[in-house]
Amino acid sequence: MNQRHLTSSQRSRFVEAVVELKRAGRYEKYVRLHGKYFAADGETGLRMAHMAPTFFPWHRQFLLVFERELQSLDPTVTVPYWDWTVDRSPSSALWADDFMGGNGRDSDGQVMTGPFAYRTGNWPIRYGVTKEKYLTRNMGRPDRPIALPTRAELDGALSIATYDTAPWNSAPGTKGFRNKFEGWTVSETKGGYLHNRVHQWVGGHMTGGTSPNDPIFWLHHAFCDLLWVRWQRRHPHSGYLPAAPLGAKDPEHGRVVSLHEKMPPFGVTPAEVLDHRRFYTYEES
User: Fold this and answer.
1) Which one, 42, 57, 155, 232, has least CB within 10 Å?
2) Whole-structure pTM over 0.85, yes or no?
């Protein structure tokens, strides 16, 4: 469901479940997991969560596992999505004190309001790529201002009919929908394209491999997942690629997972999660 249509009760139940997961010591595993599988083009070994065709199916499974654990605490809770082409301002109700909390303060980026503020005691940062023990944000990146992606930019990506292409990474030569959407190939002044620019716009902990430290991560990736659904509907004859394992002589052999190969650490294949209707439906608006 779009977060802007949640009732007050739905908002509070989602927040309470996330905070309880943190309090129980069960949240950090998601931060560590995302960091572990955040492998870049220049690194050796398998690329899984990012800069690879598995960007969409891996994050879908990641969201599913997280949502199921929230539901073990409160069966009524689902992960809402944030449509960042509509709710584009730090003054949006998304960032209210009873939901995601606000921006970081100028001096150190520390989030001071809402349920995930360090001073409430609910949200200490225990694992990250930086040393801060508090959640940080830097909305809009004031020193080099960027804006959230527009509807027109999104439509441009959704119009690309091919899911992914060789060399299956973040290089500009990878012309498919997945790489365009993931968004690593735009200039430094503009930021990333779609998905990546949203991380940069929020700033702080959202900019690194341990971005689930900021709970807005889940709402952002729920919308990314919905956009994959929209792409599939627009291009029903264009499936996940690569469809078959890459040959031993392919430079990306051993780095990219094909349609029927398992995605670690989940042990499911992209093919098994292609149809979201096996697991949930979306209330769109």
Assistant:
1) 42
2) yes
